[in-house]
Structures are given as structure tokens and as C-alpha cells.
Design brief:
EC number: 3.6.4.12
CATH superfamily of the domain at 462-563: Tetratricopeptide repeat domain
Helix content: over 70%
Radius of gyration: 32 Å
Shape: elongated
Organism: Apostasia shenzhenica
Protein name: Pentatricopeptide repeat-containing protein
CATH topology of the domain at 462-563: Serine Threonine Protein Phosphatase 5, Tetratricopeptide repeat
Strand content: under 5%
Keywords: Hydrolase, Repeat
GO biological process, one term: RNA modification
Largest sheet: 2 strands, antiparallel
Oligomer: single chain
Distance between the termini: 79 Å
Length: 610
DNA sequence: ATAGGGTTAG
């Protein structure tokens, strides 16, 4: 109360200068809503000084709901508690609502219990929806059942607002029979309670029921809303039923029902996940209003389609639009940065996340950061972050082991692997095997592979593991052993295994061995251009030009094209530059090629061979 | 004067 009077003194001058003497309450509300929290405080001060707060119960309730709508539940509760007169039931309801709609569920429950001890007041049809919502957030099924019984006691069991909240609660906690009973016992059902059924089933993975209720809802002639569309789209996205998702989009366009922001977001998500980048963009660009979900879904859609540059551009637009990124934005954007190895951008993004307190304790985000630092070459920074994590998950271990592997630090990878507190999975084993391979640690690698074959990790060797072993043996010059392992791998991995073997044969000058299996790669994976190129190269090394010409001829006839290699480099203060093989398009191409030749010369002079 | 339902991540 002391604080409030001080506040009143402070802002009464301001209020007096900008407002006529006691305008109507609704006018005040409009002004306050426009100015959000500051406006609410101004109104609060004015109501106190004018005495309106003690004479009008409506004034107190309006004030509580204003604070609630400006996301200030604590101020709402303070106004409620400091009321000069005992608050009436409407004020109690507004206060409970302020807490429950601002995620202060436990406080909402406490306030509700205090209301129950008040002999003069009983909860009504406005109280129940709020308290049920709070209990749903708390996941308290025991309390939900008690409150449900209480609804009958007060004769409010046919109230559709309370029933919607109850249905929502039961479905979230997978009490399907209870939810359906409440739903069917109602004398009338509106679109909201239908939405509760559809979305409740959708969220708990009961996709069939969700679709059935949606279909039934349409049969009953209920007009769907943006809430319905969002829920039903999430079903089709989860089940990868993109054609049905498209049909929903068409339905929305045809019936002209408003999409609202969330339903548009769900469409972007759907199109993003079915590689319909253009359609996702179409929806995104046509939105009049975008929230953080819109941006996150759109950035992820670029990301799924592999367009890292577009993802980064979108991120820039997001910041310009003044939308605050969150941890999900960061996990979507960091892989794009990693892909183009833009360390400066990565550091900048990390600093931004730290400044805005977005990093706190999100395992996904920490993993993305570790991966980014490792892929951008800053492996020791990656390790510092890894060690600082309060709790690493399996992905963290895998990322860090992979990081050491790709930096040729086999010993560090092996040490990390041996100190693992979590059980490894197949990805972990691939990482540690490739670390042994790149680090030339054949014996350690063979030992892990042997243990794997003996079932020690509970994982049986898969294609990738064979591939790692071929690579490892090949690099160590154990070509016969490499060949034996390549012969064990099948399918696409078999082809890659043979390619690894062929590469190793060439490295070791055993071109005859390479020629012997050159076409096996093509036989196994004729669609893969890499196999054809490999075969042609092998014949070239051995000087078998007739065979080489034959392979090239077949490649032409079949239209096999070599995929052009592409790389990026980040220049401090000058952004990211992309290059493809033989690229002369860069404004400073001449200087760049001169520098490359210079570096190649130093490397040769330093005694390095290919 | 006060009330119920929704989307995104390795």
C-alpha cells in the first residue's frame, strides 16, 4: 500500500497533465490498454487519488484485468490484495484469471484455496475455467478430478466454458474416456469444445481420433477456426501426410476462413517439412503479422532445404523486424553458420544470445553451439562449452567426439569416449571409429570394432561402421584387410566402402588393386555419380585409357553428371564468399588464384604430398 | 467488471 501511494504521487502529475479531470472509466481503460503497463500504472494511481478504487468494485476488477492483459500478474495481485474494501467474487475471479493466464498456476491454486475458505463467497462459472486451466498447466490430475466433482456440486457441470477446460485437461493427461463422457453429456457443443477435442487428441499423438473428431465436426456443420486448422495441420505434419495438409490449405482458401498467425505458422511448418520451400515462402510473405513462431518455422524450412544463405538472410530480417529470437531460432540458425564455417558470425550470434539471456540451460542450444564452434575450427572453445554444460546428453558426447574426429585429434576423442557417463549409440561408435581412422590409431579402432562385434555396446555394426573400418585400414596400408571389410558392407554403404578402398589403393600406389574393383561401385549404386567418377579415375591412374573412354561414354549416354564442389570462406568485416571449382566470377578472382598457387607452392616446398 | 481451445528444435 505504501508503494502504491508513492506510485500514485509520482505519476499523478503526469496523469493530470495528459488526461481531463476524471474521464469515463472506459476512456481510461482504452488509454491504459494502449500504453500497456505504464498506462495501467497511471490508471492505478489515478483511481487511488480520485477515491474511485474504494467506491467502485468495477474499478478494482478493471484494474486487475488491465494488469493481467499487460502481462503483469504480480501488479494485478498487488491491486487485488491492497483493495481498501473486501473484494467481491468478480474481483476474486479476475485475480485468479490474472495468475492462471500468466502461467503462475501454483499461485492461482493458492488463491483459489483461499477463496474456498471464505464462507461468504462460492466459486461460479467464471472461477472454474481459470482454476482448471491452472491445474492443467500443473498437470495435477488428482485436483482436476476433485474440481470436476465440485462442478457437479455447484450445478455447473453443463457450463460449456468449464467443460472445455475439463475436456482439455483430461485429454492432455490421457484420460480419454473421461473427456469423451464430458463432451457427449453436454446439451450443446460450440466450436471451442470441438477444438479442444481435436487438438487434445492431436497433442497426445492420437492422430486417428483427432482426424475423426475433425471430420465429425465438419459433418455437424461447425465452422472451423484458426485453432482448428492449427491442430489438424499439426496432425498431418506429424504423420508426414503432406497431401492432406495441402488439402487443408486449399479448404482454408476456398472457405475463406481466417488463418490467423498460428495457422499460417503451421502451414509454413508443413511446407517446410515436405520440402515445399516456395509454398512456405508464399504463406510467409503473405502474412500481415508475424510472430517468433513464424520466423522460426520459416528459418527451419530454409534449413531443411539446405539453403543456408537464405536462412541467414531471414535471421537478419527477423532482427530488423524487431522480433526477439529465442533458443529455437538459435538452434535453427547455428547449423547454417556451421555449414559455411563462419566463425565470426557464430561468435557474434553466441554473444547476442548471452546478452539477451537466451542461452540459459537449453541442452539443444548448447549442443548447437558446441557443433558450431567445432565446425568453424574453434575446437577448444567447443570443449570449454561442453565442460561447462550442467548436464550433457548423448548428442553432446557425440558432437564432441565427432569434433575431435574431424580435427584429427584421435587421442582426445578416445579419452572422451572412455570417460562417457551415458551409454553410446551407433552415432557415437561411428564418431570414435572415424577419430581413430583420422588419427592413425588402427589398433584402438580395431579393438572398439571387435568389442562392438562381440555385442559389448549393444549395437551391431552397420554400414557406416564398416565404412570407417575400410577407411582406417586403407590409410594404414592394410589393403587386404580393408578389402575384406568392404566386401561385408551392403547397399549404398557398400558402394561408399568400395570407394574408400579405391581411394586407399591409389594413395598407396596400388592402382592394380583399384582397377580390380573400380566398376563394383558403379554396379552397386549406378545412380551415384561419385561411383562413376571413381571408376574413371581408377582407369586413368592405371593408364588404361580404353576402359576410361568406355566409362566416360557410358556416363554421357546415361547423363551422369559430376556434382560441382562448392566452398565458402568468411572474410572478417566483409561477409561470406562462395566458390565453385574453376570459378572465375569473383571480382578479385585473379588475386585469389595467385594466392592459391602461392600456398600450393609452400605446401609442396614444405614436403607435403597430396 | 471476471471465463475455455492452438503451432516451432538434433
Amino acid at each position: 500500500m505504501k508503494q502504491l501511494s508513492a506510485l500514485a504521487r509520482q505519476s499523478s502529475d503526469l496523469a493530470a497533465s495528459s488526461l481531463p479531470i476524471l474521464p469515463s472509466l472506459s476512456k481510461l481503460q482504452q488509454l491504459a490498454a494502449g500504453r500497456r503497463l505504464a498506462g495501467s500504472r497511471e490508471l492505478h494511481a489515478l483511481l487511488l487519488t480520485s477515491g474511485l478504487l474504494s467506491s467502485s468494485p468495477a474499478a478494482l476488477t478493471s484494474l486487475i484485468s488491465l494488469y493481467s492483459n499487460s502481462s503483469s500478474p504480480v501488479d494485478a495481485l498487488a491491486a487485488f490484495s491492497s483493495s481498501p474494501n473486501p473484494p467481491n467474487l468478480v474481483a476474486w475471479n479476475a485475480a485468479i484469471s490474472a495468475l492462471s493466464s500468466n502461467s503462475l498456476s501454483a499461485d492461482a491454486l493458492r488463491l483459489f484455496r483461499r477463496l474456498r475458505t471464505n464462507p461468504a463467497l462460492s466459486p461460479d462459472r467464471f472461477t472454474f475455467p481459470c482454476i482448471i486451466k491452472a491445474l492443467t498447466d500443473l498437470g495435477d490430475i488428482i485436483e482436476i478430478r476433485k474440481i470436476h466433482a465440485l462442478l457437479f456440486k455447484f450445478g455447473l457441470d453443463s457450463e460449456i466454458f468449464a467443460a472445455s477446460a475439463v475436456v482439455n485437461a483430461y485429454l492432455k493427461m490421457e484420460f480419454v474416456d473421461c473427456a469423451e463422457k464430458v463432451f457427449h453429456d453436454l446439451p450443446e457443443r460450440d466450436v471451442v469444445i470441438w477444438n479442444s477435442m481435436v487438438n487434445g487428441f492431436a497433442q497426445t499423438g492420437r492422430f486417428t481420433e483427432a482426424k475423426e473428431y475433425f471430420a465429425e465436426m465438419l459433418r455437424e456443420g461447425i465452422v472451423p477456426t484458426g485453432f482448428t486448422i492449427t491442430g489438424v495441420l499439426s496432425v498431418f505434419t506429424s504423420t508426414a501426410d503432406f497431401r492432406a495438409g495441402r488439402r487443408i490449405h486449399a479448404f482454408v482458401v476456398k472457405t475463406g476462413c481466417d488463418l490467423y498467425v498460428s495457422a499460417s505458422n503451421s502451414l509454413i511448418d508443413l511446407y517446410g517439412k515436405c520440402h515445399g520451400l516456395e509454398e512456405a515462402e508464399l504463406v510467409f510473405e503473405s502474412m500481415l503479422e508475424r510472430d517468433v513462431f513464424s520466423w522460426n518455422s520459416m528459418i527451419s524450412a530454409s534449413q531443411y532445404s539446405g539453403d543456408h544463405v537464405k536462412a541467414l538472410q531471414l535471421f537478419g530480417r527477423m532482427l530488423l523486424a524487431g522480433v526477439q529470437p529465442d533458443a529455437i531460432t538459435a538452434t535453427a540458425i547455428l547449423p547454417a553458420i556451421s555449414q559455411i564455417a563462419a566463425l565470426a558470425s557464430g561468435q557474434e550470434t553466441h554473444a547476442y544470445l548471452l546478452r539477451h539471456g537466451i542461452t540459459n540451460g537449453d541442452v539443444f542450444l548448447d549442443n548447437a553451439l558446441i557443433d558450431m564452434y567445432a565446425k568453424c575450427g574453434s575446437i577448444d572453445d567447443a570443449r570449454v562449452l561442453f565442460d561447462q554444460m550442467p548436464q550433457q546428453d548423448l548428442a553432446s558426447w557425440n558432437i564432441m567426439i565427432d569434433a575431435y574426429a574431424s580435427h584429427g585429434r584421435g587421442q582426445d576423442a578416445l579419452e572422451l569416449f572412455n570417460s562417457m557417463t551415458a551409454a553410446p549409440n551407433e552415432v557415437t561408435i561411428v564418431g570414435v571409429l572415424s577419430a581413430c581412422s583420422h588419427g592413425g590409431m588402427v589398433e584402438a579402432g580395431r579393438e572398439i570394432f571387435r568389442r562392438m562385434e562381440a555385442g559389448e555396446y549393444g549395437i551391431s555394426p552397420a554400414a557406416e561402421h564398416y565404412l570407417c573400418m575400410v577407411d582406417m585400414m586403407g590409410r594404414a596400408g592394410m589393403l587386404e584387410a580393408a578389402k575384406e571389410i568392404a566386401a561385408k558392407a551392403e547397399g549404398a554403404a557398400g558402394a561408399k566402402g568400395w570407394r574408400a578402398y579405391v581411394t586407399a589403393c591409389k594413395e598407396k600406389g596400388e592402382v592394380d588393386r583399384a582397377v580390380e574393383v573400380a566398376e563394383r561401385v558403379v554396379e552397386m549404386e549406378p545412380e551415384w555419380s561419385g561411383g562413376w567418377v571413381m571408376a574413371a579415375n581408377a582407369y586413368g591412374w592405371a593408364g588404361k585409357y580404353e576402359e576410361l573412354a568406355a566409362v566416360r561414354g557410358q556416363m554421357r549416354r546415361k547423363g551422369v553428371r559430376k556434382v560441382v564442389g562448392c566452398s565458402w570462406v568468411e572474410v572478417a568485416g566483409d561477409g561470406v564468399h562462395a566458390f565453385v571449382t574453376g570459378d572465375k566470377g569473383h571480382p578479385r578472382a585473379e588475386a585469389i588464384y595467385a594466392a592459391v598457387h602461392g600456398i600450393a607452392g609452400w605446401v609442396r616446398d614444405g614436403g607435403c604430398v597430396e
